[in-house]
Design a protein that fits this description.
single chain, 481 residues, mainly alpha
């Protein structure tokens, strides 16, 4: 019995490259559509007559829903397949943004945020799908390129959104445009060559000899394919039960993991839904009970440190250096663009470190901590400019490293659950960081970044303690293989 990834890597490189490029387009359009309206949300809810407190509560609805739904939806994508889950998430997100375009009251505005908060996880599913498609060696490079594509959409979106708001009913136009973009993404995902690019896991497990031969034949095209094949026995123990609980009724129906071709006349809806819920609960419980608390804690600490760095950036620039908001906006745009382009550096840098992601995460975290400290004590704007330049690069590399390490330790068969859990951890940071930032600003404009330095140091200490244990486990695993 061999790993499902062997079967995926068997496919023609051109077909695999085509679907990966389509996923890049989906990521770009996703964040382009979202960023059309994000800068306009607070202005619109206030225009509807909400007080600052009510506006804050309504604005926090999305983050709270994301906190609880990220892991569940990610695990659900492991159970029912990436295509089905992504189509549902895109369609329901389009519904939410369409309702937002019709929101003429606070109640309708809040109602529109519910489906978006629950199902706006298309980017997480895209990352899980990319993890399914590529080997561990290729994963950092592909993830870096995906981050570049999606980040460029987030940079360009506000420009178009600002142009739309100059006309009457600009917010409603932007909302309907965002909904149309998500519908367009749905069509693109529907038309992807799923049957050509992916092979069902159950078929892979039942045809081990053919898979083995094919994997070895492909060594000239894909590096680390032999390593992926060698890991088949351990991965198969989890993927086979996962395929069983999806409600397949015949061998030919096992393709439901990747193809949305269920014959509902042969499957009872209630038992099928119950099996899906049971499998989702099992996967979440498995991740929760695993020895991965250290990685998730490092992710939380570093995410909060970076959020505190950006939390009062504009206000601090004005108070410390008398910098006008327009100039601060240019600096933020420069840093965001540089951070997006830094995704192209992830692949070469990981190769330079011999794909030692734990060491690269440690070094990038140390660099990020030092840069936040330098920003807090910067004597001039030019020092801030220098810090912003390198912190954009270090944070991009750090995010890719922590995601890759989580997937390495958790296993490719639970990639959706793992990425969703990571998003939930980040959502916790989004809830806590504004509160901590407000408390720190009571003492000094430099309070939030100083507090961020303390959190980053805690993450670095944790890495120094845990990285040797990760490396020791990795060596034992290689010895067993």
């Amino acid at each position: 019995m061999k790993n499902a990834k062997c079967c995926i890597l068997n496919q023609t490189p051109r077909r695999r490259t085509r679907i990966i490029q389509c996923i890049y387009v989906v990521g770009f359009m996703d964040l382009f559509g979202v960023s059309l309206i994000i800068p306009l949300l607070s202005h619109h809810v206030k225009a509807l007559g909400a007080s600052p407190t009510v506006a804050g509560l309504v604005g926090s609805t999305y983050g709270i829903l994301q906190l609880f739904s990220s892991t569940i939806v990610g695990s659900w994508s492991d159970v029912v397949g990436r295509r089905y889950s992504m189509l549902m998430c895109l369609l329901l997100s389009a519904l939410g943004y369409g309702l937002l375009g019709m929101s003429t009251s606070i109640a309708l505005f809040l109602l529109a945020r519910i489906p978006v908060g629950l199902f706006k996880h298309s980017l997480s599913i895209c990352r899980a799908l990319l993890s399914d498609l590529v080997s561990e060696v290729e994963r950092p490079l592909v993830m870096g390129h995906f981050n570049v594509a999606s980040s460029m959409g987030f940079i360009l979106g506000p420009v178009v959104g600002g142009y739309l708001t100059e006309h009457d009913g600009g917010f409603y136009t932007a909302s309907f445009t965002c909904a149309a973009i998500f519908l367009l993404n749905t069509g693109l995902v529907w038309l992807l060559p799923w049957s050509d690019a992916l092979t069902p896991r159950t078929d892979a497990n039942s045809n081990s000899s053919a898979s083995n031969a094919s994997c070895h034949d492909n060594d000239n095209h894909f590096t680390s394919t032999h390593q992926n094949c060698s890991q088949g026995n351990s991965d198969n123990q989890t993927t086979a039960p996962a395929a069983a609980v999806t409600g397949s009724v015949a061998p030919e129906k096992n393709q439901r993991s990747w193809n949305w071709d269920l014959d509902w006349g042969e499957v009872s809806l209630l038992p099928s839904a119950w099996r899906q819920l049971s499998s989702v609960g099992s996967k979440i419980s498995s991740v929760a009970s695993s020895d991965m608390w250290d990685l998730f804690l490092v992710r939380l600490l570093m995410a909060m440190a970076i959020m505190l760095y950006y939390s009062n950036f504009s206000l601090a620039m004005e108070e410390r250096f008398m910098l006008k908001p327009k100039a601060t906006g240019y600096l933020i745009s420069y840093s965001s663009t540089l951070g997006a382009l830094a995704g192209f550096l992830v692949g070469p840098i990981t190769k330079l470190y011999g794909n030692n992601m734990s060491a690269l995460l440690l070094y990038s975290s140390v660099l990020t901590c030092c840069l936040i400290l330098l920003y807090a004590v910067a004597p001039s704007v030019w020092h801030v400019f220098l810090c912003s330049t390198f912190i954009a690069i270090s944070t991009t590399i750090g995010r890719t490293c922590i995601t890759d390490l989580i997937l390495q330790k958790g296993g490719a068969h639970d990639s959706g659950t793992l990425i969703g859990a990571g998003q939930s951890v980040t959502a916790v940071g989004r809830v806590l960081a504004p509160l901590l930032s407000g408390l720190a600003q009571e003492f000094s404009p430099c309070g939030p970044p100083i507090l961020g330095v303390g959190l980053a140091l805690a993450g670095i200490v944790l890495l120094l303690v845990r990285v040797p244990k990760w490396d020791e486990r990795g060596k034992r695993k290689e010895a067993q293989l």
